[in-house]
Specification:
Helices cover 78% and strands 0% of the residues. The chain contains eleven helices and no strands.
Length: 274
């Protein structure tokens, strides 16, 4: 009976994995099949001309600006918040409420974040439609993800590391930034990878805060159009599935290289710690 259950669960696990990979291959294959013909040097590095299958270079730069600024804002805040909750805060009702609030924030639809960003950052703080307003809104969206993954990474550090460091005379802060945080860094960076994926994939929140101007941004106060917003607009306004698929191909390649770069950093940290 035990062997039968083990075989059944193993079969279900393999079947689930096969179904998941198949769906992923179908989606990516469809996008590449529809859009690869448009991808060229001029398409990637050319200027955008409305109504034509023209370049997306301004949108690529706007997307990279948004990713970089969002991570620059959210990553240090998320890591510091997680360190405080895990290492300094007294575990009690207040910490439980904070954790519940962060988990609840991760389940709020992105359009709600977009409306908040439009009312607070764009209108009240008078940032207008800008990369900064979009990045601040996205930072709030990815903070719960970074905080939670960082907490889990810190929890995974063996207690003996901390005990040995304190026994050798290190202060609590020295133990934290020399032992605990470096050991937890691979897990922290894994959370950052997930955050990058969410930042790139968001359209509603960016649409309502960063705007839709399809020109090269001059600075973080410029209005901009990211790749996901551009894909939505060309599909909605012109019904151009081929162009939207070509944009999707570029997005997939960008995500692939960013993930590869992040995993390279994770491996470097892992080698340094062992």
């Amino acid at each position: 009976m035990r062997k039968f259950k083990d075989g059944l669960f193993r079969t279900l696990f393999w079947l689930s994995a096969i179904i998941t990979v198949t769906i992923l291959v179908i989606i990516i294959g469809y996008i590449f099949t529809k859009g690869y013909k448009l991808v060229s040097w001029d398409f990637i590095f050319g200027a955008y001309v409305p109504g034509e299958k023209s370049g997306i270079y301004p949108m690529i730069i706007s997307t990279l600006y948004t990713i970089a600024l969002t991570l620059a804002i959210a990553t240090p805040i998320g890591i510091l918040a997680a360190v405080y909750l895990q290492e300094y805060a007294k575990q009690g009702p207040v910490v439980k409420i904070i954790r519940f609030a962060t988990e609840s924030l991760s389940g709020i639809p992105s359009i709600i974040y977009g409306l908040f960003g439009a009312l607070f950052f764009v209108t009240y703080l008078k940032f207008n439609y800008s990369i900064l307003a979009g990045a601040l809104t996205l930072s709030i969206m990815v903070l719960p993800l970074i905080i939670r993954t960082t907490e889990e990474a810190i929890q995974s550090v063996p207690p003996s590391y901390k005990e040995a460091s304190l026994a050798l005379g290190s202060t609590r802060f020295q133990t934290l930034y020399k032992i605990i945080v470096p050991s937890a860094m691979p897990g922290v960076l894994a959370g950052v990878i997930l955050a990058i994926g969410r930042i790139i994939g968001e359209s509603a929140a960016v649409y309502l805060t960063a705007g839709t101007v399809a020109v090269m941004p001059k600075n973080i106060m410029s209005s901009a159009r990211t790749l996901t917003v551009h894909a939505y607009l060309v599909t909605n306004e012109f019904g151009d599935i081929e162009l939207a698929s070509a944009i999707g191909v570029v997005l997939i390649v960008i995500v692939f290289f960013l993930n590869y770069f992040a995993r390279f950093i994770i491996k470097s940290f892992s080698k340094a710690n062992y």
